[in-house]
Amino acid sequence: MGARNASHVGLVGGSLEERLQHSRVPPIESAWVLAPLRREGDEERLREFVAPGGVHLEIGFGRSHHLADLARHFPDAPVLGFETRRAWCRMAARRAEREGLSHLRVIEGDARPYLDAWVPDGSLAACYILFPDPWWKKRHHKRRLFVPEFVERIHALLAPGGALVAKTDVPAYADLIESTVLDHAGFSLAGTTADDSALEALPRSHREKKCLELGIPYSAFRFVKEPLR
Ligand SMILES: C[S@@+](CC[C@H](N)C(=O)[O-])C[C@H]1O[C@@H](n2cnc3c(N)ncnc32)[C@H](O)[C@@H]1O
């Protein structure tokens, strides 16, 4: 199965892959970036990268430091980051190279079709979705990551006991994240910021640091994959 044919529409300007193909900024040529849609051999490299399992996956890492911090926090696990913005992917790849983070890879694009096509079920130790775009307008709600179909996909991708970590400073989106994930019978809520040492131990994203600096309240959730009841 390949993602090449996936007619995934959902981000500003329609298909993101189409948009990247027409970008005036040249594509990133780096060993730290996997581009299975355009570079010969990268489909196989991606499969090999995720094959050992225990992968830490970040969707929408934004500025690169959090992804690098995750890689330092989990030095023995494959760490895979998706981001739709080319400049931030380039920044992450340069940082990984500079810091010798050989177990980190970046993919430029909308994570969803790649996860469908190339990441096997049960291969994730954790998935981090930190301060996702809330897509305020009603007609854009279908672009949100936290919809039942995607929660179902993340559940399948996680190994038993694996974690879905989500944070947001948008109260209505926090409610939606909590209800959408807990509506899935295979997740339970293991912790929130105030009471969870596992959450507290994780690195902080750019947006989280800003919230802390400016005193903006935010919600954090650690959901854990349970066996299906
Ligand atoms: C609000 S920013 C948060 C960035 C970072 N996680 C933080 O906490 O500072 C959301 C990021 O997710 C990226 N993004 C949105 N949808 C995505 C998708 N489907 N796949 C990959 N990245 C996505 C956007 O480009 C943006 O950089």
Please describe what this structure looks like.
The longest helix is centred in the middle third of the chain and has 13 residues, at 86-98. The chain is built from nine helices and seven strands. The chain has helices at residues 16-21, 42-50, 65-73, 86-98, 111-118, 148-157, 171-182, 197-201, 206-214; strands spanning 55-59, 79-83, 104-108, 124-130, 158-168, 187-192, 219-225. It has one domain: Rossmann fold (3-Layer(aba) Sandwich), CATH 3.40.50. It has a seven-stranded mixed β-sheet with strand order 3-2-1-4-5-7-6, sandwiched between helices. S-adenosylmethionine binds at residues 59-62, 82-85, 110-112, 130-133, 205-208.
Secondary structure: elements and pairs:
Blueprint: H1 16-21, H2 42-50, E1 55-59, H3 65-73, E2 79-83, H4 86-98, E3 104-108, H5 111-118, E4 124-130, H6 148-157, E5 158-168, H7 171-182, E6 187-192, H8 197-201, H9 206-214, E7 219-225
Parallel strand pairs: 1-2, 1-4, 2-3, 4-5
Antiparallel strand pairs: 5-7, 6-7
The site of S-adenosylmethionine has 19 residues, from strand 2, helix 5 and helix 9.
The chain-level structural class is alpha/beta
Report the β-strand fraction as a percent range: 15-25%
Which ligands appear in the coordinates? S-adenosylmethionine
Question: Numbering strands along the chain, what is their spatial order in the largest sheet?
Answer: 3-2-1-4-5-7-6
Helix and strand run = HHEHEHEHEHEHEHHE
- How many helices? The count is 9
What is the domain total for the residues?
Answer: 1
In this structure, how is the largest beta sheet organized? 7 strands, mixed
CATH class: Alpha Beta
